[in-house]
Design goal:
The model has no long low-confidence stretch (mean pLDDT 91). This protein is 27% helix and 24% strand. The chain has four domains: 83 residues, GIY-YIG endonuclease, CATH 3.40.1440; 139 residues, P-loop containing nucleotide triphosphate hydrolases (Rossmann fold, 3-Layer(aba) Sandwich), CATH 3.40.50; 171 residues, Rossmann fold (3-Layer(aba) Sandwich), CATH 3.40.50; 68 residues, Alpha-Beta Plaits, CATH 3.30.70. It is built from 17 helices and 29 strands. α1 packs across α2 and α1 crosses α8.
Length: 602
C-alpha cells in the first residue's frame, strides 16, 4: 500500500495521510474518510503538517475522482504560492480558488494538454489614464486584437458590466461576462476550462477561472481597496493574480486612474497623470468658512459659501450634486454633559452611533442597538449631547439651506448595502438632485451627470489610524475628479483645515508627486511596500506564548493595547513566522479556533 497526502478544504494546514494500493498523481481530487463523513480533497506533496501518530491506523482513499489533474499546472502553482504567502494553508487556498461543485467532486472531462506560453511572454505593462471612457477604449482595443485567452478583471462588478456593454456584439460572442449565480458560474467555469471561451470580463469572483490559453491578465483599478478581501482569509487579489501571470507566463497589465504604491515603487515612470485640474478644484479653509449649529450636537457642521454656491450652480444646470461625509447617523456618538462619559455598548464597550431616524444608538463594532436613554447610564444626568454631526444632520441642514429653490435633497446611507439604480433616480428626478452620502455614492457618477462633488470634511478621510491613511484619502478624492460621466466639466469643493497642504498637494501636482513624498516617508519608517507587515489575531489566551517565540528570533513586533492576542510583526522572514504558526493551525485545534492573519504588502 502507498501512502498519499491529501489536503481537504478547511482552515487547518494539516495534510492528512491515507493509503492506496497504487501511486496517485499529485493534484487530483480524491474522496477520503474524515471523521464520520467523507470529504473531497486534493493529493499534495508531503510538505506541511502531516499526521505523524503511528498508533493511528491509516484509512484507505475511498475513491479517485480524476484520472489526471483537473486544473492547469499554473493554477496549481498559484494555489501553492497563495497558501505559502498568505499564511492560509492549501485547504483554504483551494476553497478560495475553486467552485463549490469542484470541491464537491462533480465529475469533469479529462483536461486536455494546455499549450504553455513562452517564458518571454511574461512582462508587466501599465495603462494609467484618469478618464474612464478613454481607458476602457484601450481595453476594448486589446480585446479586439487578442488571439489568445485574456482576462479583464475589475474591482467592481458594475464596472465590469459597463465595460462589457461597450464591446461590439460580434466580439461578445467570443467571450463571456462572468455571471453572479453559482450554477451559471460553474457552467462558464467548465466552458473556459475546455477552451470554448476567448476572453472573460468579470470581477474578483472570476480571478481564478482556468481559462485555456491564458496569455494576458488585465487588472483594472489596481489601486482600489476592493481587491483586498475584508474577511478571513485576508488576501490581495492583485498580488495573487500577479503571481498567476508569472506562473502562466502571461502578460500582466495594471490599469486605473492612479498607480498603487507597489507599482510606482517598481517603476516610477509607469504612467503620466493629468495636472490640468486647478480650474475645477476649489479648496476651502475651514478655519475661515461658515458653519451651522446642529440641534443637540456639540459640534457644528462646516458648510462653506463656495460649497453652497457650486451646489446652486450645479442644480441650475440640472446636474446632480454630491455632498460626501463618511459618518452615518445623526452624530458620531452621544455623551453626558454632566459627567463627560460617552455612552458605550453594553455588549462590547464599542462606540455607539446616534441614529436619529431610528431614534436609537447603534454599536459600530457588534451592531447591537438600543433606544436612546432618557438619562446617562453612568451618573443619571439628564443632559445628553451628540458629537461630530453625521449624514442625517447634514441632510437636515442642506434641506433648510436649499428649501426655497431646490427641494430635491436625498440621503443615501447604504443601510441595505446597495445604492438605488441610476435609471430609477433619473426617472424620479429628471432635473437632478443633491445627494448626501458616504464615499459609496461616487459609484453613481458612472451614470448620473454630476456637476459638482463636495467633500464636507476632507481631513477626516486621512484620520484613520492606519499607515496608508493618506494614500487612501488621496485616491478617494482623486477618484472624485475623474470617475464617471464627463468628469472634465465637474467642480470639486474640498473643505479642509489644511487646504492644499501635506498630502493634499498631490491633488494639484499629480499622483506621481504624491507617491514620491509618501514613499519617502514610508521608507524612513520601514513601512509597506518596503517591509511587509503581518497582523495576527491569535486564539484567546495564546498571544503571550506566541510573542515569546518572536522574542526568541529577535523579530520586531508589538501587541495591541486592547488585547495581547492581537500581534503585529514587521518582517520578511515569512518562513520563521510560518514555522511558529504551524502548530496553531493543526487540525486538532479545530474546537479552540485558528489564528486570523492579515498581510500588508503595500
Amino acid at each position: 500500500m502507498k501512502q498519499v497526502f491529501v489536503s481537504v478544504p478547511g482552515p487547518w494546514w494539516t495534510r492528512l495521510l491515507y493509503l492506496h494500493d497504487t501511486p496517485i498523481k499529485l493534484g487530483v481530487r480524491v474522496l477520503v474518510p474524515l471523521g464520520r463523513s467523507t470529504r473531497v480533497g486534493l493529493t499534495v506533496a508531503a510538505e506541511g503538517i502531516p499526521v505523524e501518530n503511528n498508533s493511528i491506523k491509516l484509512k484507505p482513499i475511498t475513491k479517485i475522482i480524476d484520472s489526471v489533474p483537473p486544473i492547469p499546472e499554473e493554477l496549481m502553482k498559484t494555489m501553492e504560492w497563495f497558501s505559502n504567502t498568505w499564511f492560509s494553508g492549501l485547504g483554504i487556498a483551494s476553497k478560495v480558488m475553486f467552485p463549490t461543485k469542484f470541491l464537491d467532486g462533480e465529475e469533469l472531462c479529462p483536461l486536455t494538454e494546455y499549450e504553455k506560453n513562452n517564458p518571454d511572454n511574461y512582462r508587466v505593462n501599465y495603462i494609467y489614464e484618469e478618464n474612464d471612457a478613454k481607458r476602457y477604449e484601450r481595453y476594448a482595443e486589446i480585446a479586439k486584437s487578442s488571439s489568445a485567452g485574456t482576462m479583464f478583471l475589475f474591482s467592481e462588478a458594475d464596472s465590469a458590466k459597463k465595460f462589457w456593454n461597450l464591446l461590439p456584439s460580434g466580439l461578445k460572442e467570443e467571450g463571456i461576462i462572468w455571471p453572479t449565480g453559482a450554477t451559471k458560474q460553474w457552467t462558464q467555469w467548465k466552458e473556459a476550462r475546455n477552451g470554448n471561451v476567448k476572453f472573460i470580463v468579470g470581477s474578483q469572483s472570476a480571478a481564478f477561472v482556468p481559462l485555456k490559453g491564458l496569455s494576458r491578465i488585465i487588472i483594472e483599478d489596481e489601486n482600489s481597496g476592493g481587491w483586498l478581501t475584508q474577511k478571513n482569509p485576508c488576501f490581495h487579489h492583485r498580488s495573487v493574480l500577479a503571481a498567476r501571470a508569472k506562473f502562466s507566463n502571461a502578460e500582466l497589465i495594471l490599469g486605473g486612474r492612479i498607480a498603487s504604491s507597489k507599482a510606482f515603487m517598481q517603476n516610477s515612470e509607469c504612467g503620466k497623470e493629468k495636472k490640468d485640474i486647478q480650474k475645477r478644484l476649489i479648496f476651502v479653509n475651514l478655519h475661515d468658512s461658515s458653519s451651522f449649529t446642529v440641534d443637540a450636537v456639540k459640534d457644528s457642521l462646516p458648510i462653506s459659501k463656495p460649497l453652497i454656491r457650486e451646489t446652486l450652480t450645479c442644480r441650475e444646470n440640472s446636474k446632480w450634486a454630491f455632498w460626501i461625509l463618511d459618518r452615518k447617523g445623526y452624530a458620531g456618538e452621544l455623551y453626558c454633559r454632566d459627567c463627560g462619559e460617552p455612552l458605550r455598548c453594553s455588549h462590547c464597550v464599542g462606540v455607539m452611533r446616534w441614529e436619529g431616524k431610528q431614534k436609537r444608538l447603534s454599536c459600530l463594532s457588534c451592531k447591537h442597538h438600543i433606544p436612546i436613554p432618557e438619562k446617562c447610564p453612568s451618573c443619571g444626568g439628564p443632559f445628553l449631547e451628540g458629537v461630530r454631526p453625521g449624514l442625517e444632520a447634514l441632510t437636515e441642514r442642506a434641506s433648510l439651506i436649499l428649501r426655497y429653490k431646490y427641494k430635491e435633497v436625498l440621503l443615501f446611507q447604504n443601510e441595505s448595502g446597495k445604492l438605488p439604480s441610476c435609471k430609477s433616480l433619473i426617472k424620479d428626478y429628471p432635473r437632478g438632485a443633491l445627494v448626501v452620502g458616504t464615499r459609496k455614492i461616487l459609484a453613481l457618477t458612472d451614470e448620473l451627470p454630476t456637476g459638482m462633488i463636495g467633500w464636507i470634511d476632507a481631513d477626516a478621510e486621512a484620520r484613520i489610524t492606519e499607515y496608508d491613511a493618506k494614500a487612501r484619502a488621496f485616491a478617494l478624492l482623486y477618484e472624485s475628479f475623474w470617475r464617471g460621466m464627463d468628469p472634465e466639466r465637474r467642480k470639486i469643493v474640498i473643505q479642509s483645515r489644511r487646504p492644499d497642504r501635506g498630502w493634499q498637494k498631490g491633488l494639484t501636482r499629480g499622483w506621481s508627486y504624491f507617491w514620491k513624498t509618501e514613499l519617502k516617508e514610508r521608507k524612513e519608517w520601514n513601512l509597506p511596500p518596503y517591509s511587509p507587515m503581518l497582523k495576527m489575531v491569535m486564539p484567546k489566551g495564546t498571544g503571550i506564548d506566541f510573542a515569546k517565540l518572536l522574542d526568541k528570533e529577535s523579530l520586531e513586533y508589538w501587541a495591541a493595547e486592547e488585547s495581547s492576542d492581537e500581534i503585529w510583526v514587521r518582517t520578511r522572514k515569512f518562513s520563521i513566522i510560518k514555522k511558529y504558526l504551524a502548530p496553531y493551525f493543526d487540525i486538532k485545534n479545530t474546537r479552540r479556533g485558528f489564528p486570523v492573519t492579515r498581510l500588508y504588502l503595500d
